[in-house]
Amino acid sequence: MTITDKTRKMLWGRSGNRCSICKQELVLDETDLDDASVIGEECHIISEKDNGPRHRNDYPTDQFDSYENLLLLCRVHHKMVDDQKETYTEDILRQLKNNHEKWVTERLNKDDFKESKNH
Questions:
Q1: What's the pLDDT band for 110 if we cut at 50, 70, 90?
Q2: Which residue has the higher pLDDT, 77 or 1?
Q3: What is the spatial distance between Cα 62 and Cα 102, in angstroms, rounded to a whole number?
Q4: What does the H/E/C string look like for 5-55?
Q5: Residue-level pLDDT at 119
Q6: CB 3.0-4.6 Å disulfide test: which of 4, 5, 20, 81 passes with 100?
Q7: What is the mean pLDDT of residues 23-41?
Q8: What's the pTM value of the predicted model, to 2 decimals?
Q9: Closest C-alpha among 83, 113, 92 to residue 20
């Protein structure tokens, strides 16, 4: 299975185009000489690979590429959470994702954002 367009859009939209850990923007503007650069990565919380980070044999195979099993990170933090899988457990990554998406929603729901939208 692969990540669907709908899942990808939900992940990037709810993450506000920012890394769930450092909040860095994950699409960098183009320059006069080059196109824009995507530095974000769609990361699996539970790896589908037997030897992958946080792999669980009991995880449903049709859920590996689901929205619930993905979070958005910059390349540095993706490498970090996969290399440090004992520190970045499934529960911690799910909490990071949840907190980040809540942070994005709160930032976008601020009164000053609503006011600027009405002008």
A1: confident
A2: 77
A3: 26
A4: HHHHHHHHHHCCCECCCCCCECEECCCCCCCCEECEEEEECCCCCCCCCCC
A5: 58
A6: 20
A7: 96
A8: 0.87
A9: 92
